[in-house]
Amino acid sequence: MAVEQKAPNRYHHGDLRRALLAAVDEIVRELGVEGLSLRECARRAGVSHGAPAHHFRDKRGMLTEYATDGFEKLLGSIAFEFDKIGLDDTMGRLKAVGKGYVNFALSHQAQFKVMFRSELLDNDNERLLDRGRQVFEALTKSLAAHWAATNQGWRKENLAQISLAWSAVHGFAVLAVEADLLRMGSEGLLNPDPDAVLDQLMLIAEPPGQ
Amino acid sequence: MAVEQKAPNRYHHGDLRRALLAAVDEIVRELGVEGLSLRECARRAGVSHGAPAHHFRDKRGMLTEYATDGFEKLLGSIAFEFDKIGLDDTMGRLKAVGKGYVNFALSHQAQFKVMFRSELLDNDNERLLDRGRQVFEALTKSLAAHWAATNQGWRKENLAQISLAWSAVHGFAVLAVEADLLRMGSEGLLNPDPDAVLDQLMLIAEPPGQ
DNA sequence: AGTAGGTCTTGGCGATGTAAAGAACCGCAC
DNA sequence: GTGCGGTTCTTTACATCGCCAAGACCTACT
Predict the structure, then answer these.
(1) Does B98 touch chain A (CB under 8 A)?
(2) Which positions of strand C lie within 7 Å of protein CB atoms?
(3) Average pLDDT over residues A34-40
(4) Residue A186 has pLDDT above 70, yes or no
(5) Contact A199 B160 (CB under 8 A)
């Protein structure tokens, strides 16, 4: 999605909304969220600095759209992994959630970071909330399906296991994306293969005492 | 640490550095990092807007100090948990790291968020790097001690396990601090007891097939 | 006492987000 | 087609911000 400039002679842009979101992505990749400004977005779209206000109320509104778009891509990434796995392979599907999540984070690092900067977003936005919920449900439903398939029933640890799985997948993605953060802790020690880490994580979904 | 105003008649503040860091904390709690400005810090310390530059080179420098201070408190929190556990209880010490980490995140949410916003910080700062390293080492050393004590030796999964533990603890803290984020996924479902989640996490440190 | 150096003030610069008012354009009713 | 309402975009203005440079003030040391 490239930033489409407005033709200089024309008054209307044509697809300013798209162009602005493309500009957001471009800038956030180049400079991070701190480097993002409404005016620069407008500039890249070849439009005056007041124009964006008609499509997104303000900066927060614009970032909220950008984040929501990210969640939809994230859902797509999980769906992509699902498609490779048979419905009966509940363990495989469980791992697919983690894979889709981590893959998205790694391939859209800048956007991923924005998605979880709740101070920057309108957290009451319906679409944003909905997409977030869907991601969470992909995880919980896959876990539940696996437990059902392995006849484990519902045990009291399950709630904590859901939290742990959610924490680990998100935490891994965050750490992978924050390269400087890894630098701090590890200096090369911690340069893990996502697959191996996910395999370890899967163990918590197994019945105890195996 | 309260923000100490400069006495209006005096020319020197006396302890401006401390006062500014206190102001940072105050503002970040109230408004988040986005709401932070050098000028507002100066105002709260009763000092002109140019004054902070002499103590921290610029905004990034100020935030770096604030973050470093946070890492030191985090180390303190882990040490506090360690003190309650005997040296021979390697499992207890392992859990203590997670507890100290999560406790700090929960009791200093605003500061915790800043600490991991690497785009805002001077990531080459020696003290910052050092304190970060120390936190990571608290985890890895405790894991290594536990493995040594349980005669497991070094297995090839250990690296992935370290990553997983680090991811899970950090991820859990992040999710706990980002309340709005939890709202998205859970709406009450995911309001976990840190202790229960840590217990689940501890299982990965055990030898396989138990 | 005098001076060097650190602390703080002041004023100014360019940039930002938001608001309000006006210009250009589109589509629809007539 | 013509006129008109609503939308998209421009323009101007304002308060605030980070940073810089010049100067005033104070402390400490010789």
Answers:
(1) no
(2) 6-12, 15-21, 24-26
(3) 97
(4) no
(5) yes
Q: What residues of chain A lie within 8 A of the CB of B172, using their CB? A: 163-164, 167, 171
Would you say A141 and B78 are in contact if contact means Cβ atoms under 8 Å apart? no
Which amino acid belongs to residue B191?
N
Q: CB count, 10 Å around CB of A146?
A: 20
Domain B1-55 in CATH 3.40.50.10610? The answer is: no
For B64-205, which CATH superfamily applies?
A: Tetracycline Repressor, domain 2 (1.10.357.10)
H helices of chain B, where? 16-31, 38-44, 59-82, 90-107, 109-115, 126-149, 158-177, 179-185, 194-202
Average pLDDT, chain A: 90
B38 touches strand C (CB under 7 A): no
CA dihedral defined by B162, B167, B168, B171, rounded to 10 degrees?
A: 160
Distance A108 CA to C24 C1' (A): 38
Which of A79-83, A170-174, B142-146, B187-191 bottoms out in mean pLDDT, i.e. has the lowest? B187-191
Flag whether the pTM goes above 0.85. yes
Residues carrying CATH 1.10.357.10, chain B:
64-205
Whether B60 CB is under 7 Å from strand D? yes
Question: Which of the following CATH numbers is that of domain A66-205: 2.60.120.10, 1.20.1510.10, 1.10.357.10, 2.40.320.10?
Answer: 1.10.357.10
Other C-beta atoms lying within 10 Å of the C-beta of residue B97: 24
Residue spans in chain A of domains classed CATH 1.10.10.60: 1-55
CB spacing of B163 vs A201 below 8 angstroms: no
pLDDT above 70 (res A180):
no
How far apart are the CA of A71 and the nearest CA of chain B, in angstroms?
11
Flag if A167 and B166 touch (Cβ within 8 Å): no
Higher-confidence residue of B191 and B30: namely: B30
Per mean pLDDT, which range of B59-63, B99-103, B110-114, B173-177 is the poorest? B173-177
Q: What pLDDT does residue A112 have? A: 96
Q: Which nt has its C1' nearest the CA of B59?
A: D18
Q: Looking at residue A182, what is its pLDDT?
A: 58
Per-residue CA distances from A79 to A89, A99, A107, B199 (Å): 15, 11, 16, 31
